[in-house]
User: Fold this.
Amino acid sequence: MFVILLGPPGAGKGTQARLLAESLGVPRISTGDLFREEMASGSALGRSVAAYMDAGQFVPDETTIALLQRRLRAADARDGHVLDGFPRTVRQAEELDRILARRGQHLDRVIDLNVDTEALVERLAGRSMCPSCQTTYHDRIAPPRRQGLCDRCGATLVRRVDDQPETVRTRLRMYHENTEPLITYYDEAGVLSIIDGGQPPEGVTRDMFAALGMTKGSF
Ligand code: ADP
Ligand code: ADP
Ligand code: ZN
Assistant:
């Protein structure tokens, strides 16, 4: 199954994409995580994207599409994926359609997580993440069992540089101007489901599975 999770920064894409990918047995592919891994490894690509990422600006389409294309060629992504944070522009969406079409495949569904701006700002202000396995936490809503340490791997949690309020504003504007048009794009393609991302995580998960025609018994 080929699925995209769409939504503004802080909508819960990462949280939900992880659960969905595990249930489907397909990889979760986050371009944000891939870029952060490149930055952490100190690669030329990582150095070239750092300034965009830290400022909350988009990495240029050519770079982002090339990275995604490379990831989609891996064996584990042949029969399905859950994309988290890609596409973010109409150009990226068109390119993804072409990549899949060349392989005789197509998107099954795009899930848009709808959350109001105030809640997004609060979520991002409280977000911490594991630099090792990329699991995300929230100080109040989803705290780790031991303060400051990842439940899954024990690493020390960090705050993302781009989760500072000033940068969050830039990211929300970037989303509004460049990514929101994808809602219409996918609606016209007949693959869009909009769900209420403002509810507690379990409710979002339930609605997401329902939109994919999956019920509790099937995962
Ligand atoms: P969020 O959790 O806010 O949705 P991500 O981790 O997905 O953020 O992305 C972090 C940053 O990585 C973005 O602000 C942007 O700089 C860069 N990035 C990730 N995906 C893309 C993309 N598809 N196009 C352009 N830039 C991207
Ligand atoms: P995205 O990948 O869309 O940027 P995340 O999954 O990283 O979003 O979630 C952003 C923050 O909000 C995290 O701190 C996460 O723990 C928290 N969060 C995720 N889903 C919910 C929810 N349904 N209600 C409240 N907080 C949530
Ligand atoms: Zn971890």
Remarks:
- The chain has nine helices and seven strands.
- The pocket of zinc ion (ligand 3) is lined by residues 130, 132-133, 135, 150, 152-153, 155 (CB under 6 Å).
- The first helix runs from residue 13 to 24.
- The mean pLDDT is 96.
